[in-house]
Amino acid sequence: MRNYKELLLVVVICGAILGVGMSAAKFGTEKWKNIKCQSNLKEIYKLADKYQAANNGNIVPVVDKTKRPWKWWCNYLTPYATNPHIFYCPANPKAAQFFVEEEDPLEPKTFGMTALSYGMNWALGEKTKKKTTIVNIKQMADPSYVVYFGDSNLPQLRGTKWCWKTDYAPRHFNKSNFVFMDGSVKLMNHENLGLCQNWKQWEKDRKRWFNWTSK
Question: How far is Cα 10 from Cα 2, in angstroms, rounded to an integer?
Answer without folding.
Answer: 12
